[in-house]
Design a protein that fits this description.
There is one protein chain. The protein is α/β, with parallel strands linked by helices and 252 residues long. The chain has one domain: Rossmann fold (3-Layer(aba) Sandwich), CATH 3.40.50. The protein starts with a strand and ends with a strand.
Amino acid sequence: MPIERIKTGIPGLDEILHGGIPKRNIVLVSGGPGTGKSIMAQQYLYYGLTMGEPGILVTLEEHPVQVRINMAQFGWDVRKYEEKGLFAMVDAFTGGIGEAAKRERYVVRDPTDVGNLIDIIKEAIRDVGAVRGVIDSVSTLYLTRPSLARSIIIQVKRVLSGLGVTSLLISQVSVTERGFGGPGVEHGVDGIIRLDLDEIGGELKRSLIVWKMRGTSHSMRRHPFEITSKGIVIYPNKVLKITRYGVFEERA
């Protein structure tokens, strides 16, 4: 029986994933600051909206108004989809404080209350019939309680996957950290995509590697990518080799 997949719509990524993300998978998108994690997740959501697949975006680290502005800069205007009831922004950042926040439909008053957060996520998913989801970022949920990271991820996964939502969870790591953003987190998700930004010889190089993806084979190589005015573009036919002597790109 063929695997049911969700196309990411991100140029190059579906080729690397041999067709897309298996449906209901919960994928950790991990990386340091400036690597393009949020852009990738927003691009994934917006592509789905253009294909008639409703989605939700849970924002924990940025004001929903700013998120909409950021997305619009790439031509991803989500307001029209919100008005049609096809997209929901879950505000887990403001706590309902401020005039703009009062206009948000889905507001988490206390983001540290994981139970309340999950209840509102469920409500948003059911209201719009979400097929795709993004949480930006899950690191915020266990930043002060690292021992609970795996437990929190499992709770979130149970809800998202259980409701049929194929989701990207953003995970923050430091510039020098080579992990995935929390003890045990990598074992609680179905897939891990790691984004890196390396300074080699005075130049920054972006690259991506799929560390794991349950239910499908995938490229085992590190691929270069760029952030353009229309979003992320990955080069599946190129491999980025990083050594202590420099960076080498070669055709796959």
